[in-house]
Write a structure and sequence with these properties.
membrane, Tick-borne Encephalitis virus Glycoprotein, domain 1, 3 helices, single chain, 5-stranded antiparallel β-sheet, 4-stranded antiparallel β-sheet, 196 residues, 34% strand
Length: 196
């Protein structure tokens, strides 16, 4: 059975596509949240991606003894005073507005990246929302015991906004890589066919 040129090209595209799909898992794709400025691998810990605190309240659901406290809210200037402690010792504090992030590094390793999502006034006082929230393992401390059951139950409570959940960036990058290669091969084959 002899194949005409069109069928040969289709088979060629099919083989190239299968090859690219097979090789895709071997392509290393990284998220900026997984690496610090020195490109050393950091372990992202499963914390709640969003939560809220009233003035004077402390968020204790971090790992390795870290806690976050909203010390003061200035409604006129629309900013807050945040304090991050580790086992009761102040490690970072800052005055932030909506959209600002508290970024805490230890020995150039990023440990926290917490963004102030909103500053609100309610019947019981000021309320501050945080989203997104990232904690990375502090390599200078013993590794935390991550309880996935506890994490899953925390993720199901009312403080978590699942509307902001996204596909992991590494998966998106891999999909874009495969799609780009398939498109490139398709254009190359069409270009080759048009020259004949």
């Amino acid at each position: 059975m002899r194949l005409n040129k069109e069928n040969k090209n289709l088979i060629f595209i099919f083989i190239i596509t299968l090859t690219i799909i097979f090789l895709q898992p071997f392509v290393v794709s990284t998220s900026p949240n997984s690496f610090d400025d020195n490109n050393s691998v950091q372990i992202e810990l499963p914390v709640e991606s969003s939560f809220f605190l009233e003035t004077g309240e402390t968020w204790t659901r971090f790992y390795q003894g870290y806690e976050l406290k909203v010390t003061y809210v200035n409604l006129e200037q629309q900013n807050i005073w945040l304090q991050l402690t580790q086992n009761g010792e102040l490690v970072e504090e800052d005055i932030l507005s909506e959209g600002d992030s508290l970024i805490y590094k230890k020995n150039s390793e990023k440990i926290f990246n917490i963004t102030v999502d909103g500053i609100h006034i309610g019947p019981d006082g000021e309320l501050v929302t945080f989203n997104p929230v990232y904690q990375y393992q502090d390599p200078t401390l013993p590794p935390p015991e991550v309880n996935n059951d506890q994490y899953n139950s925390n993720m199901n409570n009312d403080n978590v906004n699942h509307d902001n959940d996204t596909i992991p960036e590494s998966g998106v990058n891999g999909t874009i890589f495969v799609f780009s290669l398939i498109l490139m091969w398709f254009l190359l084959v069409n270009n080759f066919k048009s020259r004949k």
